[in-house]
Amino acid sequence: MNATAISGTDLDVNFNLSGGNLVLRINKGGIQIFRAVLRKAAAPMPGGELAAFSPFSPDLALTVGDIEASLAVSGLCLEL
Fold first, then answer.
1. pLDDT at 73
2. Residue ranges per domain, the chain?
3. SS3 letters for the chain?
4. Which residue has the higher pLDDT, 72 or 20?
5. With the C-alpha atoms ordered 76, 4, 7, 57, is the resulting torsion angle positive or negative?
6. Cα separation, 63 vs 16, whole angstroms
7. Cα-based distances in Å from 46 to 37, 38, 42, 52
8. Cystine design at 41: which of 10, 22, 53, 70 (Cβ 3.0–4.6 Å)?
9. Cα–Cα distance measured from residue 25 to residue 35, given in angstroms and rounded to the nearest whole number
10. What is d(CA 66, CA 57) in angstroms, rounded to the nearest whole number?
């Protein structure tokens, strides 16, 4: 796993590949506060397909410590 501390904060970013998926974890003060998996991130993708996907790349905004909002977004991500 690769880890990068963010200077001047108690945040660090960790990432690794797992079966072609990119796994991203963010820790605050050593406690994991965010995890995301980009499925098939490492798989080859034709340039046209990649360019077509780019405008639809998702933006995700969470407020650290807002459990209710995080659960609502998690439900959307899990298609619940």
1. 66
2. 2-77
3. CEEEECCCCCEEEEEEEECCEEEEEEEECCEEEEEEEECCCCCCCCHHHHHHHHHHCCCCCCCCCCHHHHHHHHHHHCCC
4. 20
5. negative
6. 24
7. 21, 17, 12, 10
8. 22
9. 4
10. 24
Residue 56 Ramachandran class (φ > 0 left, ψ -120 to 50 alpha, else beta):
alpha
More confident residue, 7 or 56: 7
Instruction: Give 26-80 pLDDT, tens digit per residue.
Output: 999 999 999 999 999 999 988 888 888 888 888 877 788 877 777 776 665 554 4
- Is 51 exposed, middle or buried (CB count within 10 Å of its CB: 0-12, 13-18, 19+)? exposed
